[in-house]
C-alpha cells in the first residue's frame, strides 16, 4: 500500500499557501511475468514513492534525486541560489532555464484562463500572511495589503525567449502551486523514455499513473477527505486509473488561527486576503500533473457552482469536490467523468 503524503508538508518549494489535503494510493500488486520495483526517498522537503513493472531494475534512487534537485535549483524558494530567488531579488529580470520557462508558460496560461485567480506573483501576499519562507510577527493591515497588491499580477511579467522581465522591481513569484506537479511529470516522462510503461509516480501527494498491473487490473487510488462535520479524515472514494494524473488542493489541514477566525493558506491574489468560501477540497484528474496541479488551486477559490461550471467547460479536467452545504454539513459532488473512475460504488 502506498501512502501519499500531505501536499502541504513544507517541501522546499513550500507549497504552503495552496495545498492541504492528501490522498492515499492502494497498490496491492500481483507479480506475473514482470517484477515490481519500488523507490522511496525524500526530496523537495517532502517524500516521493515510485513503483514500476519491468523485467529488470532500470532506475536508481540517485537518478530520481538528481532530477528533483535540478527542479529545486530552479524553482525552490528555500534555496538561496535558485533561479526563482535570483529573479525575485533582481530589479529588472534575469535569464531563466528551460524547466523554469516551461512552468512559467503553463502558469501564465492558467492565469489567463482563470482570470487571475491563479497567479504566481502572489508571493508577497503569501509572505505577508505568514505562509512564506519567513515567519511574521503580525498579520498585514488593510493599508499594507493595498500596497502589496500593487506588486501582484502576472501581467507585470514579460517573457522574451529565455529572459523573464518584471515591470516593477517589487514583483516576486512563487511557483509552489504548480511546480510539484511539473516534478511528477518530469519523473514520469523519464520513466517513459526508459521504456517503462506501467508505473506510479507520487511526490508529496501528487501522482501520475501509466498502464495497468500485470494481471490487467487498474491502479487503485483512495481519495481522502474530512468526515461528516469536519471529523477525522477518512477515505471517501476509491478510483481506478490507467493513465493520467491526480492532484488535490484543500484548506482543512493547513491554516492559522487568529482568535476565533480561521486564516487559510489559500490567498486570493485579486483581493489580497485569504479565501473564504464553502469549498473544503478539490481533487482533479488531468492527463498531466502540471495541469491538474495548476487548476486545483484556482478552483478552490471559487464557490461550488462556479467550480463545477468551470470544470464542465474544460474537457481536459474532471473533478471531485468536498464542500460545506448551506446547513454546514460536509458533502461532496463530482463531474460525470470523475464518477466513471469510481470503483467503490
TrEMBL record:
GO terms for molecular function: metal ion binding; transferase activity. InterPro entries: ApbE, ApbE-like_sf. It is an enzyme of class 2 (transferase). Its cofactor is Mg(2+); Mn(2+). The chain crosses the membrane at residues 12-31. Gene3D superfamilies: ApbE-like domains. Belongs to the ApbE family. Keywords: FAD, Flavoprotein, Lipoprotein, Magnesium, Membrane, Metal-binding, Transferase, Transmembrane, Transmembrane helix. Signal peptide: none annotated. Magnesium. Can also use manganese. The keyword Amino-acid biosynthesis does not apply. Its EC number is 2.7.1.180. It comes from the Bacteria. Pfam families: ApbE. It catalyses: L-threonyl-[protein] + FAD = FMN-L-threonyl-[protein] + AMP + H(+). This is FAD:protein FMN transferase. Mg(2+) binds at residues 177, 293.
